Amino acid sequence: MRRFIGTLIGAGLILYGVGTLLSHTLFGDPRDEQRAIAAAEQYVATTYPHIELSAVHAGLQIWGSGAYVVTMASEVSEDTQFDVVVNGDGAIIDDYYDDVFTGMVTFNRLHAEYRPLVETALRSLPFEHDLYENVLTVYEGEGSAEEALDPATLILDHPYDIKQIGRDHGSLFIWIEGEDAIAQHASERMRDVKRVLDEADVPFRTLLISIQDGNESFYSGRVNAEDIEEDGLAEQLQRNDNERKEMN
């Protein structure tokens, strides 16, 4: 009996040890995480002494890696936050302070403010749909879409009018499955989308709709908001779809 109990205890300890090791491998060792946070705070205090920053989040860079991502943020500047990548032993791998002064943090803030407005308005649509993740497009130089927003033009912490941002730069992509993949139907769905956004007072710059019906597909191309109510929309969408298919 004692041998049996001893065996159970031994097995339990082994399972506990394996579970702990697996947990640390997948989710990180709490001691390494605290070491990474301390190292990141020391690093930014030395590297960026003109900014008062503190750690607001930390976690493994990817499961099973030994590197941690520590998010540092300012209490007085909502757009001053960036990640520092740290090894479990406290060695600094990289930091993303560039995202602050290049305007990407401000761009991401505006995107995070605008997308929920669009999502909420689209709930009124009478059909199933998916909204593509990005509702603002980053300007990346010549060849960028006309509605693309250049992060370099943004002002840190500026209280932008998010509806004006949407009017000038909102770039929406709606995906629909199981409906007629033809120009006339796409034009009707495009007007449905514009109607619910107008009713919710959520402006946008361009709209693209893609419909997949089995092996048939239709791609509207990007259409400016003010052109959606114009006559000949279906014909314009058909031309856009033809051009895309010719390119492929």
Query: Helical segment tally?
Result: 7
Largest sheet: 5 strands, mixed
What's the total number of strands? 9
Give the domain tally.
2
SSE string, helices as H and strands as E: HHEEEEHHEHEHEEEH
Hey, roughly how much beta strand do the residues contain? 15-25%
How much is the average pLDDT? 90
Low-confidence stretches: 10-27
CA radius of gyration is 25 Å
Shape: elongated
Portion in helices? 40-55%
Task: Report, as a whole number of angstroms, the end-to-end distance.
Answer: 75 Å
Structural class assignment: alpha+beta
Counting copies of identical and different chains, the oligomeric state is single chain
Short overview:
A hairpin with a 4-residue loop joins strand 3 and strand 4 (about 90-95).
